[in-house]
Amino acid sequence: MSRFQRRKPKGQPIDGWLIVDKPTGMGSTDVVNRLKRLFQAQKCGHGGTLDPLATGVLPIAFGAATKTVPYVMDGTKTYRFTLRFGEARDTDDADGQVIATSEARPEDAAIEAALPAFRGDIMQVPPIYSAIKVAGERAYDLAREGQAVELAPRPARVDRFELESRPDADSAIFLVQSGKGVYMRSLARDLARACGTVGHIAALRRMRVGPFHEATAIPLDKLGQPGDTPPPSPDLLLPVTTALADIPALALTQAEAMRLLQGQAIGLVELMGRIPGEANPDGGLVRAMARGRFVGLCRLDSGLVVPERLVAQESLAAGG
User: Fold this and answer.
1) 61 and which of 66, 104, 194, 282 could share a cystine (Cβ 3.0–4.6 Å)?
2) From CA 124, how far away is CA 262, in angstroms rounded?
3) Is 282 a catalytic residue?
């Protein structure tokens, strides 16, 4: 084989989503690496980071599903977290070092009065222990080196933020529904400050990411260990299109699908009567389907269906 020829990727070419119930104490990348080895897969990624402290829904994308990760990460997320009052931590969660203390413990009424300011479109300063880049470096790397890290506020969308229960004076449990890029650690930190004290997240669980819910999540330890024989069955994976269930479907002929796969746009006039009524003609996404197979995501723009994120379909190219 010539050194200029592309090497065949290691592993099995499997496609689909696996919804894992992540245990505490592991990072999202650790879970991805373990599952890639476990399934002996060529390509694997995750659909939304969970901190090591956190548990719950971690969507894992295999093969072609990795191309749909951005659309999963844009989806609605639901969390439950425990806010511990009285101690601020450098990581804003229980894994960090104590950097400030307070004897103040807010009453329920004070918490309820503070919550509305954190709902809707807000500006939020991310935790310094986050993957955001500062001058080309990850903020958490700078923080670990003892450098002062200043992060600018970022827009965030919080659709629901409710006090669920109050186990004791030192803690409160909240339910949150949010959009992309909202840090629960920042919500907890800032809410405690708004209540006249300091605090951090003591426990965090994610219950939903887009179309994926905890009811269908598989505990990581139930999937086995790398090196197990035989490895887990790919039948455990959900179809690639599961992640796109909320995006309207557009039925195409095989010839139309091939045009999109070749990078060509298709005029809406040619597809008259097939454009889904719920699709936004001014920049909306559609899920292109041919013979029941997912072709890719396209955007409606200026009277055209424009390919945006396509998945190669060998069966279509072969006329199958």
Assistant:
1) 66
2) 42
3) no
**What are the angstrom distances between the C-alpha of 96 and each of 91, 261, 317?**
5, 48, 53
**Do the beta carbons of residue 85 and residue 105 sit within 8 Å?**
yes
Note the pLDDT tens digit of each residue in 208-264: 998 899 999 999 999 887 777 777 888 889 988 888 887 888 999 999 999 998 889
Residue owning tokens 């260990």: 225
- Residue 319, pLDDT score: 47
* Contact call for residues 43 and 63 (beta carbons, < 8 A): yes
Alpha-carbon span 81 to 203, nearest angstrom: 5
DSSP string, 53-117: T-EEEEEEEEGGGGGGHHHHHTS-EEEEEEEEETEEETTSBTTS-EEEE------HHHHHHHGGG
What mean pLDDT comes out for the span 128-150?
Answer: 80
List the catalytic residue out of 15, 51, 92, 93.
51
What would you measure as the largest C-alpha separation in the chain, in angstroms? 72
Rounded to whole angstroms, the Cα distance separating 30 from 113 reads 40
Dihedral angle computed from the Cα positions of residues 177, 181, 186 and 191, in that order, rounded to the nearest 10 degrees: -30
Q: Record the tokens describing residue 288, joined without a space.
A: 């292109």
Residue with tokens 């809707």: 120
